[in-house]
Amino acid sequence: MKLVVVSAGLSVPSSTRLLADRLAAATARHTPVDVQVVEVRELAVEIAHHLTNGFPGRALSAALDAVTGADGLIVVTPVFTASYSGLFKSFFDLIDPAALTGKPVLIAATGGTARHSLVLEHALRPLFAYLRAVVVPTAVYAASEDWGAPGLAERIDRAAAELAALMTGLTRSDAAIGSNAVTGREAGAGSAPDTADALRVVPFEEQLARLGAA
Protein backbone atom coordinates (compact mmCIF):
# COMPACT_ATOMS: atom_id res chain seq x y z
CA MET A 1 0.00 0.00 0.00
CA LYS A 2 1.12 3.52 -0.75
CA LEU A 3 1.14 6.10 2.04
CA VAL A 4 1.78 9.71 1.02
CA VAL A 5 2.81 12.26 3.64
CA VAL A 6 2.17 15.94 2.90
CA SER A 7 4.29 18.19 5.10
CA ALA A 8 3.80 21.95 4.89
CA GLY A 9 6.57 23.06 7.25
CA LEU A 10 8.58 26.07 6.13
CA SER A 11 11.77 25.83 8.17
CA VAL A 12 14.68 23.39 8.07
CA PRO A 13 14.68 21.51 10.37
CA SER A 14 10.93 21.56 10.81
CA SER A 15 8.80 20.38 13.71
CA THR A 16 6.02 19.84 11.16
CA ARG A 17 8.22 17.42 9.20
CA LEU A 18 9.30 15.75 12.45
CA LEU A 19 5.67 15.09 13.38
CA ALA A 20 4.93 13.88 9.85
CA ASP A 21 7.83 11.41 9.99
CA ARG A 22 6.75 10.07 13.38
CA LEU A 23 3.20 9.54 12.16
CA ALA A 24 4.44 7.73 9.04
CA ALA A 25 6.76 5.50 11.07
CA ALA A 26 3.95 4.64 13.48
CA THR A 27 1.63 3.76 10.61
CA ALA A 28 4.32 1.51 9.10
CA ARG A 29 4.52 -0.35 12.40
CA HIS A 30 0.84 -1.26 12.09
CA THR A 31 0.75 -2.23 8.41
CA PRO A 32 3.27 -2.53 5.56
CA VAL A 33 3.33 0.69 3.53
CA ASP A 34 5.53 2.40 0.97
CA VAL A 35 5.99 5.96 2.22
CA GLN A 36 6.43 8.97 -0.04
CA VAL A 37 6.88 12.45 1.42
CA VAL A 38 5.70 15.60 -0.33
CA GLU A 39 7.44 18.71 1.01
CA VAL A 40 5.10 21.53 0.03
CA ARG A 41 7.80 24.13 0.79
CA GLU A 42 9.81 22.84 -2.16
CA LEU A 43 6.82 23.32 -4.48
CA ALA A 44 5.96 26.90 -3.48
CA VAL A 45 7.07 28.54 -6.73
CA GLU A 46 5.34 25.94 -8.92
CA ILE A 47 2.16 26.26 -6.83
CA ALA A 48 2.15 30.02 -7.38
CA HIS A 49 2.71 29.61 -11.11
CA HIS A 50 -0.06 27.01 -11.37
CA LEU A 51 -2.50 29.27 -9.54
CA THR A 52 -1.79 32.10 -11.98
CA ASN A 53 -1.34 30.29 -15.30
CA GLY A 54 -3.18 27.00 -14.77
CA PHE A 55 -0.25 24.73 -15.63
CA PRO A 56 1.61 22.61 -13.04
CA GLY A 57 5.37 22.19 -13.23
CA ARG A 58 6.90 18.75 -13.39
CA ALA A 59 7.57 18.39 -9.64
CA LEU A 60 4.14 19.73 -8.67
CA SER A 61 2.41 17.46 -11.17
CA ALA A 62 4.22 14.44 -9.73
CA ALA A 63 3.24 15.48 -6.19
CA LEU A 64 -0.43 15.90 -7.12
CA ASP A 65 -0.43 12.49 -8.83
CA ALA A 66 1.14 10.92 -5.74
CA VAL A 67 -1.53 12.37 -3.46
CA THR A 68 -4.47 11.38 -5.65
CA GLY A 69 -3.02 7.89 -6.22
CA ALA A 70 -2.26 7.13 -2.57
CA ASP A 71 -4.03 4.48 -0.51
CA GLY A 72 -3.84 6.81 2.49
CA LEU A 73 -2.63 10.29 3.40
CA ILE A 74 -0.97 11.96 6.37
CA VAL A 75 -1.26 15.74 6.15
CA VAL A 76 0.58 18.04 8.55
CA THR A 77 0.59 21.83 8.63
CA PRO A 78 2.00 24.50 10.91
CA VAL A 79 -0.57 26.84 12.44
CA PHE A 80 -0.57 30.39 11.12
CA THR A 81 -3.11 32.92 12.45
CA ALA A 82 -5.22 30.18 14.04
CA SER A 83 -5.54 28.14 10.83
CA TYR A 84 -3.59 26.01 8.35
CA SER A 85 -0.86 27.74 6.37
CA GLY A 86 -1.68 29.46 3.10
CA LEU A 87 0.82 27.25 1.26
CA PHE A 88 -0.86 24.11 2.62
CA LYS A 89 -4.28 25.34 1.48
CA SER A 90 -2.97 26.43 -1.91
CA PHE A 91 -1.58 22.93 -2.53
CA PHE A 92 -4.91 21.24 -1.82
CA ASP A 93 -6.75 23.90 -3.84
CA LEU A 94 -5.02 22.41 -6.89
CA ILE A 95 -6.45 18.92 -6.34
CA ASP A 96 -9.65 17.95 -8.11
CA PRO A 97 -12.44 18.05 -5.47
CA ALA A 98 -13.48 14.48 -6.31
CA ALA A 99 -9.96 13.00 -6.28
CA LEU A 100 -9.86 12.36 -2.51
CA THR A 101 -13.34 10.84 -2.23
CA GLY A 102 -13.23 7.93 0.23
CA LYS A 103 -9.48 8.25 0.81
CA PRO A 104 -8.29 7.73 4.42
CA VAL A 105 -6.62 10.86 5.79
CA LEU A 106 -4.84 11.49 9.09
CA ILE A 107 -4.75 15.19 9.95
CA ALA A 108 -2.11 16.79 12.16
CA ALA A 109 -0.69 20.19 12.99
CA THR A 110 2.10 21.89 14.93
CA GLY A 111 2.13 25.21 16.75
CA GLY A 112 3.83 27.26 19.40
CA THR A 113 1.03 26.93 21.94
CA ALA A 114 -1.65 24.42 22.85
CA ARG A 115 -4.29 27.14 22.45
CA HIS A 116 -4.21 26.52 18.69
CA SER A 117 -5.07 22.82 18.92
CA LEU A 118 -8.68 23.39 17.83
CA VAL A 119 -7.38 24.19 14.36
CA LEU A 120 -7.68 20.47 13.71
CA GLU A 121 -11.43 20.54 14.24
CA HIS A 122 -12.44 23.98 12.95
CA ALA A 123 -10.18 24.11 9.88
CA LEU A 124 -8.50 20.84 8.85
CA ARG A 125 -11.33 18.38 9.45
CA PRO A 126 -13.93 20.51 7.59
CA LEU A 127 -11.52 20.95 4.66
CA PHE A 128 -11.12 17.22 4.12
CA ALA A 129 -14.77 16.53 4.85
CA TYR A 130 -15.55 18.93 1.99
CA LEU A 131 -13.16 16.91 -0.20
CA ARG A 132 -15.14 13.80 0.87
CA ALA A 133 -12.10 12.07 2.34
CA VAL A 134 -12.45 9.73 5.32
CA VAL A 135 -10.71 11.51 8.19
CA VAL A 136 -9.54 9.26 11.04
CA PRO A 137 -11.13 10.03 14.42
CA THR A 138 -7.88 10.88 16.21
CA ALA A 139 -6.13 14.04 15.04
CA VAL A 140 -2.68 14.95 16.37
CA TYR A 141 -1.57 18.40 17.47
CA ALA A 142 1.93 19.04 18.79
CA ALA A 143 2.69 22.30 20.59
CA SER A 144 6.22 23.27 21.53
CA GLU A 145 5.81 21.89 25.03
CA ASP A 146 4.49 18.53 23.77
CA TRP A 147 7.82 17.33 22.38
CA GLY A 148 9.25 14.89 24.88
CA ALA A 149 6.22 15.21 27.17
CA PRO A 150 3.90 12.29 28.05
CA GLY A 151 0.93 11.79 25.77
CA LEU A 152 2.21 12.76 22.31
CA ALA A 153 3.60 9.31 21.51
CA GLU A 154 0.33 7.69 22.53
CA ARG A 155 -1.73 10.07 20.36
CA ILE A 156 0.57 9.41 17.41
CA ASP A 157 0.26 5.65 17.79
CA ARG A 158 -3.53 5.76 18.19
CA ALA A 159 -4.01 7.93 15.11
CA ALA A 160 -1.60 5.77 13.09
CA ALA A 161 -3.46 2.60 14.10
CA GLU A 162 -6.74 4.13 12.94
CA LEU A 163 -5.25 5.14 9.60
CA ALA A 164 -3.68 1.70 9.10
CA ALA A 165 -7.01 0.02 9.88
CA LEU A 166 -8.84 2.14 7.32
CA MET A 167 -6.19 1.58 4.65
CA THR A 168 -6.12 -2.17 5.28
CA GLY A 169 -9.90 -2.45 5.35
CA LEU A 170 -10.34 -0.65 2.04
CA THR A 171 -7.60 -2.70 0.36
CA ARG A 172 -9.14 -5.98 1.53
CA SER A 173 -12.57 -4.88 0.30
CA ASP A 174 -11.18 -4.07 -3.15
CA ALA A 175 -9.42 -7.44 -3.29
CA ALA A 176 -12.57 -9.28 -2.23
CA ILE A 177 -14.65 -7.55 -4.90
CA GLY A 178 -12.10 -8.47 -7.56
CA SER A 179 -11.95 -12.08 -6.35
CA ASN A 180 -15.73 -12.47 -6.39
CA ALA A 181 -15.91 -10.99 -9.88
CA VAL A 182 -13.42 -13.59 -11.14
CA THR A 183 -15.33 -16.38 -9.39
CA GLY A 184 -18.53 -15.26 -11.04
CA ARG A 185 -16.98 -15.31 -14.51
CA GLU A 186 -15.49 -18.76 -13.95
CA ALA A 187 -18.84 -20.11 -12.80
CA GLY A 188 -20.37 -19.39 -16.20
CA ALA A 189 -22.65 -16.86 -17.77
CA GLY A 190 -25.61 -18.03 -15.73
CA SER A 191 -23.94 -17.40 -12.39
CA ALA A 192 -23.71 -13.97 -10.77
CA PRO A 193 -20.84 -13.12 -8.40
CA ASP A 194 -21.77 -13.06 -4.75
CA THR A 195 -20.71 -9.55 -3.71
CA ALA A 196 -22.72 -9.32 -0.49
CA ASP A 197 -19.73 -10.00 1.74
CA ALA A 198 -17.35 -7.94 -0.38
CA LEU A 199 -19.61 -4.91 -0.23
CA ARG A 200 -20.35 -5.21 3.47
CA VAL A 201 -19.39 -2.06 5.37
CA VAL A 202 -17.00 -3.10 8.14
CA PRO A 203 -17.48 -0.99 11.30
CA PHE A 204 -14.41 1.01 12.22
CA GLU A 205 -14.20 -0.64 15.66
CA GLU A 206 -14.16 -4.08 14.00
CA GLN A 207 -11.33 -3.00 11.71
CA LEU A 208 -9.29 -1.82 14.69
CA ALA A 209 -9.96 -5.11 16.53
CA ARG A 210 -8.79 -7.12 13.53
CA LEU A 211 -5.64 -5.02 13.25
CA GLY A 212 -4.87 -5.53 16.92
CA ALA A 213 -5.30 -9.30 16.62
CA ALA A 214 -3.05 -9.51 13.55
* Count of helix runs: 7
Count of discrete domains? 2
Please give the alpha-carbon distance between the first and last residues.
17 Å
Calculate the mean pLDDT score and round it: 86
Global structural class: alpha/beta
Number of strands: 7
Pfam families: FMN_red
Organism: Streptomyces shenzhenensis
Domain NADPH-dependent FMN reductase-like: 1-147
GO molecular function: oxidoreductase activity
Summed up, what is this model?
This protein has 214 residues and is of the alpha/beta class. Helices cover 48% and strands 17% of the residues.
Descriptive overview:
- One of its GO terms (molecular function) is oxidoreductase activity.
- This protein is an alpha/beta fold and 214 residues long.
- The protein has helices at residues 15-30, 44-53, 58-68, 86-93, 119-130, 152-187, 204-213, and strands spanning 2-7, 34-39, 72-80, 83-84, 104-111, 134-135, 140-143.
- It has two domains: 2-161, Rossmann fold; 167-213, no CATH class.
- It is built from seven helices and seven strands, in the order E-H-E-H-H-E-E-H-E-H-E-E-H-H.
- Strands 1, 2, 3, 4, 5, 6 and 7 form a seven-stranded mixed sheet that branches.
- Helix 1 packs across helix 6 and helix 6 (152-187) crosses helix 7.
